[in-house]
Protein 1
Amino acid sequence: MAMNDALRSLFAEGGGALNDRWRLLSVCLFAFALALAPNVLPLLLAVMVATYLIDRRPWSHRPLIQLDWRAPSPWLLLYFLLHVAGMCWTTNQDFGWFDLGIKLPLLVLPLLAMMPGLRPSGRDAALLSFCFGNAVAVLLFAILATIRIVAADGAGPEEFLSSRFSPGLHPSYFAWYLATALVVLLIGGTGARLPRRWRLVLLLVLCLGIVLTQSRMGWITLPVVLVWALLHGWNDRWMRRVLLLLLLVSVLGGSLLTLLSPGVRARMVDLVEAVSAPRDDAGQSAAIRTVVWRSAREVAVAHWPWGTGTGDVKDELVKRYAADGALKASEQRLNAHSQFLQSLVALGLPGLLGLALALVLPFVSPGIGMPDRAVRRAALLIMAMNLAVESMLEVQAGVLFAAFLAWVLWWPTASVPSSRS
C-alpha cells in the first residue's frame, strides 16, 4: 500500500492539469519502454511530441523557447546541426541522410527541452518510470533466458550472459541504461520517494542486470556508481549499509562468473591481450577496438581539421582498415568504436568540440542544488565513459537515451501555471 500511495502522490504532483497529465504519461511511457521495447520508441517519441504541440495553454504564460546553456540539450542540438553542415563536404549522400535520420532525436528532444515543461516533480515520475522499466527488462530477460535453457537448442547457462541475455538491445547499451538507473536511485532525491524495501529490490535487480550483461564497461561503471553514491550518502546509515552490501555482492558475483564461466574468462583474457599486444587480425571485441582506434586516428589526421563529412566517415574508415590489414574490421564495416573518435573523423575539430561541450560544460556548471548537481554529474560521467569506448550516438538506442537523459535530468524547475475552469 505504501508503494501505491507513493506513486499515486508522485504522478498527482507531476501531472497538475489534465493536459499536463497526458504529457507526463507520454514521457513516462517513453522512459519505461527504453530498455523493454526499443522498436516502439519512434512511435512513442511521436506521441510525446504531439502531446506537447497540441497543448497551447502553457505557451501563453512563458516564452516559446527557453535556452539554458548550462544544460546538454543546446549543445546536442549544435552537434546535430554540425552533422547537417557536414553534408556539404561529403560524397556518400545516401549514408549521410541515413546518419541524420538516426541522429534526428538530437534535434527533436533538445527542441522539447526548450519548450515549456511540466511540473518539477514530473521529472521524478519520468526517471522512476525509467528505473522500473529497466528492472522489468532484467526480470523479463532472465525469464526468457530460463525458457531458452529448457529448450532443446538452448546454450545452457550462457543464455544468461552477454548478448544472449538482452535480445534486441546490445548489452553495452543495456549496461549503460542500468548504471544510469542506479545513479537516479542512489544520488539525489528521486529514489527517496520509494519505500526502502522497494528501493532495495530495485537496486539489487539493476546490479544483477549489469553483471549479467557481461559488458566490460558496465562492470567498470558499476563500482564507480556505488562508490560515488557511498561517498555522497555516507551520513545515511541505511544507505551506507545497502551500498556496502551491493559492492560486496557485485564483486563476488563478477569474480564467480569469471571463475565459472568460460565465456566471461575469455572476455577477460581478450581484454588483457588487447592492452598488451593488439593485432591487426584481431577478432575479439576488446582487441579489435585497439586496432580500430588506431586506424580512426589515422583517418582523422588525414582529413584534419574538418573531417571526412557526415556521409563519408564509414567509407574512409573501411578503406583505412583494409590498408592497415585489419581485415575483420573492414569486412564488418565497423565504426570507430568511440564516439569521440567517430566525431573527430566525421566532423574534425568542430565535431569533437561540439560533443565535448555537451558533456563538459554541464558537468562544470553549478546546478540548482547539491542533489541536482550530484546526480547530473554522475550521469554525465557514466555517459562519457561509455562514449569513450563505443560509438553510442551512431545507433538509435544510444541517440534516444542520450537526448532523453539530457532533457529530463535538466527538467525546467519552474512549474507551468495550471488552468482554471
Protein 2
Amino acid sequence: MDETKRNFLWLNYATSTNPRLFYELLSRFDDLSEAREAIQRKEFEQFSDVSDNVKNRLVSAADDRFMDRYCAWLDRNGVQIITPEDDEYPSLLSEIYDPPSVLFCKGTLPKELSLPIAMVGARNCTDYGKEVAELLGEQLSERGATVVTGLAAGIDSAAAKGALSVGSNSCPVIGVLGCGIDVTYPQNNGALYQSVLEHGGVLMTEFLPKTPPLAQNFPIRNRILSGISRGVVVIEAGERSGTSITADCAREQGREVFAVPGRITDPMSIGTNRMITRGEAKPVLCAADILSEFTDDAGDDVLNGAAKKVTFTSLGETGQEIYMALLQGEKNADELLDWIDCSAQELNAALTRMLFSEIIKQLPGRIYALDTIHTVVTFDQ
C-alpha cells in the first residue's frame, strides 16, 4: 500500500469515520505525511482543539508498526482501500456533503458505473413487496444497471437476489454496509454476501473494520446509498420508516426518487403512497418507468437501449385485446382465446407480431406476458 493511502488510513482511523473532522484536520496541512510526522514527534499545536480520544488515536495509529499490522490485516482479508484521491472513487459520491474519507471494499469497483440505482424498503416486508423488489432488481440488472442496496433483510435482500439472477451484468450489485467490512449483517446473509462477490458485485462501507451494526450507523450509511446512485426506488415503507431517511437524502442530493404504489389498506404501503401523492416520488410500475428518466443530452437512454415506446392504438384491434388481457397477468393461448373474440389464426398472427416487436414475451410452456423491459405501451391522449 502506498504512503498516500497509509496516511489516509491513519487519519481515518483517528477520526473514527467522522468525515467532517477528517477533512477539517486535512485542511490544516499541505499533505498528510507532514501531519503524521508531526504527531510522531508529539507536536500537537495544530491538534490542540481535538478531543483527548482523537489525540490518543492519532498517536497510536501514527506508529509504523500499527499501520503495518493494519495494512497486513486488510490485505489478508481481501479488503481494498479507495480514497477521494483514487480514480475508482465514485464521482457521484464525491459530490455529496461529507463524502466518505475512505471506502473499505471487497470486489472490484468499476471506474464508471453506467446507471447505479438504489433500491430500499422495509425489512419486515410483505410477500408482494419482496416479489416486486426481486422483479425490479432483475429487470434493472438485465438492462445493465447496478442495483445499490444495504443488503438488510426484506426488500434489500430481495432486490439483490433479483439483480444477481442476471448472468450478463458485470457489476449487478453494490452492497453498502452499516457495519465493518468484516461483519455480516444480518448474520444469515453470509451466502448473499458471497454471491454478490462471486457475480462481480462489490461490498463497501466507510465504517472501520469490526464495527458492529449499531442503530446509529444506518442513517449515516444511507447518505452513501443515495449518494452513489442516480436514483432511489422505495418499495414498501411504513408511516414512520427509516427508509424515508434515504429518500430525504436522495432529494437533498438532487437524485431522482421513485416509489412503488401499494394497496391503501396495507400498512407497509402508507409511506410509499404518501410520497407519490405529495409529489415527493414518481410512481413505478416497471423498470421502464425508472430507466426512462435517465437520458443523455441527445435524449438517448444512458444504457444504450431504453425501452421503446409504442402507442396503444398502433397495436391494432386484436393486439389491443391481447395487451389488455395480459395486463391482468400471464396467459397461454387457450386462455387468451377465452378473453378475445377472434379466431386461433388471428390470435397466432397477432402474437407473432407482438413477439417480434418485443411488446410481449413467451415464457416456458407457451405462456405469454408483457415485455416491459423492452417496450412501454403508452395510451393516446
